[in-house]
Write a structure and sequence with these properties.
Blueprint lengths: L1 H16 L3 E2 L5 H5 L6 H13 L5 H7 L5 H9 L2 E2 L14 H9 L7 H28 L8
Parallel strand pairs: 1-2
Length: 147
């Protein structure tokens, strides 16, 4: 009976060691227990958490200096979570140039394919005319000027 109780306590202890640690609820000691997080990073995490809870992994990586996608993946593998979610990668931020380009881009409508086809036909006609002119020029005999 005593062996069963000790075995149960050992299993509960092992389960507690591998339990997930949520970054929004963990103490400094719990954060330090994650492999790769030391006192410096745990202090940065707690300082940023004072400003507000982390929404997701992207928010966590953006706000905590010294934590990038690589570290976030390692911390997640060691049991760190943000709002119960493990790290799956940070969504890329839309760049300012991309958002401006989308704003300036014309909206697609039913006439756009026809207009595109007309432009392609005009380009082809222009290229054909240029080729014909070059062929005509090449076929003319060159007269050498003699002195």
């Amino acid at each position: 009976m005593l062996k069963k109780i000790l075995a149960l306590i050992a299993m509960l202890y092992a389960a507690a060691c591998f339990a997930a640690v949520d970054v929004n609820k963990a103490s400094a000691a719990e954060l330090d227990g994650i492999k790769g997080i030391g006192p410096g990073i745990s202090a940065k995490i707690l300082d940023e958490r004072k400003k507000g809870n982390f929404k997701d992994w992207t928010d966590f990586v953006d706000r905590v200096k010294g934590v990038g996608e690589g570290n976030a993946a390692k911390f997640s593998a060691e049991g760190l979570t943000v709002n119960g979610d493990s790290f799956k990668g940070v969504a890329p931020k839309p760049s300012a140039k991309a958002s401006k380009a989308e704003a300036k881009a014309p909206k697609a409508d039913a006439k756009a394919p026809a207009a595109s086809a007309d432009k392609d036909a005009a380009k082809q006609a222009k290229a054909d005319a240029k080729a014909a002119k070059a062929a005509e020029k090449a076929s003319k005999p060159k007269v050498a000027a003699s002195k």
